[in-house]
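hey
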C-alpha cells in the first residue's frame, strides 16, 4: 500500500512554483522575441534558437539548484535581459539595423544591476541568480562582439572583449588551479561594466569611426589587466578552492 504524505506533496508543489512561473514567462518571451526579430530582420531563426537554448539551461539550473519557493522579479529581469540578447543574436547573421541593435543593447545594459538589487530587496539572493546574471552579461558581450566582427566594423581583435571569459573557463579545464573561487571584486565588476559600455559605444552609429579602435583597445587592455590579476591570484593560491 502506498501512503500519501501531505507534507511531501506540499513540498513538491512549492518547489514547482518557480518552474511554472519561469515556463510561462519564457513562453511569452519566446513569442515576443520571435515576432520582434521577424519584424526587425525579416527572420527569427537564430533569435529563437538562442533563447530556447538559454531557457533550457535556465530550467536545468532551477530544477537542480534553485533554493527559493518563488521565481522572483529579480530572475524575471535577468530572463528578459537574455531575451534581448537573443534578439541581438539575430543581427549577427542578418543585415545590419544599427539604431535598432544599439537601442536593444542599451536597454539590456541598463537592466544590469536591477536584478541584483531586486534579489537583495526581496531576500531571494542565490548562487543560481548570481550565475544566471553573470552568464547573461557574458553572453551579451559575446553577441555584441560578434555583431561588430561580422559586419566589418572592427577586426578579430574585438573578440577579446566578447570571449575572454570563455577562454578563461576553457583554460580552467586545462589548468585546474584556475578553477579557484575568487572573492567579490569591485575592480572586476567595474571593468565588466566598462567592457559592455565600450561594446555599445562601438555599436552606436554616432561614434566617429576614428575613435573605434581606441575605444576597443582601451577596453580590451583593461579587461586583460583584470584577468591577469585574477589569474595571478589563482596560480599563487590567493583564493578559496571551488568545490566541484
Amino acid at each position: 500500500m502506498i501512503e500519501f504524505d501531505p507534507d511531501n506533496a506540499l513540498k513538491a508543489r512549492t518547489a514547482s512554483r518557480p518552474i511554472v512561473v519561469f515556463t510561462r514567462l519564457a513562453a511569452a518571451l519566446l513569442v515576443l522575441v520571435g515576432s520582434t526579430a521577424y519584424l526587425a530582420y525579416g527572420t527569427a531563426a537564430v533569435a529563437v534558437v538562442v533563447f530556447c537554448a538559454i531557457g533550457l539551461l535556465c530550467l536545468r539550473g532551477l530544477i537542480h539548484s534553485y533554493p527559493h519557493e518563488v521565481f522572483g522579479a529579480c530572475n524575471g529581469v535577468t530572463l528578459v535581459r537574455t531575451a534581448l540578447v537573443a534578439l541581438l543574436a539575430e543581427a549577427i547573421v542578418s543585415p545590419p539595423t544599427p539604431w535598432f541593435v544599439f537601442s536593444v543593447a542599451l536597454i539590456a545594459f541598463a537592466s544590469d544591476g536591477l536584478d541584483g538589487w531586486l534579489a537583495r530587496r526581496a531576500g531571494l539572493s542565490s548562487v543560481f541568480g548570481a550565475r544566471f546574471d553573470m552568464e547573461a552579461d557574458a553572453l551579451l558581450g559575446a553577441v555584441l562582439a560578434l555583431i561588430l566582427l561580422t559586419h566589418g566594423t572592427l577586426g578579430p581583435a574585438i573578440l577579446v572583449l566578447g570571449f575572454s571569459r570563455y577562454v578563461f573557463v576553457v583554460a580552467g579545464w586545462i589548468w585546474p588551479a584556475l578553477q579557484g573561487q575568487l572573492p567579490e571584486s569591485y575592480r572586476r565588476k567595474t571593468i565588466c561594466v566598462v567592457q559592455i559600455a565600450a561594446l555599445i559605444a562601438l555599436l552606436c552609429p554616432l561614434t566617429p569611426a576614428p575613435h573605434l579602435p581606441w575605444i576597443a583597445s582601451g577596453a580590451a587592455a583593461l579587461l586583460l589587466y583584470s584577468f591577469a590579476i585574477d589569474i595571478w591570484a589563482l596560480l599563487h593560491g590567493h583564493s578559496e578552492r571551488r568545490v566541484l
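The chain has a mean pLDDT of 88. The chain has two domains: 1-131, 153-244.
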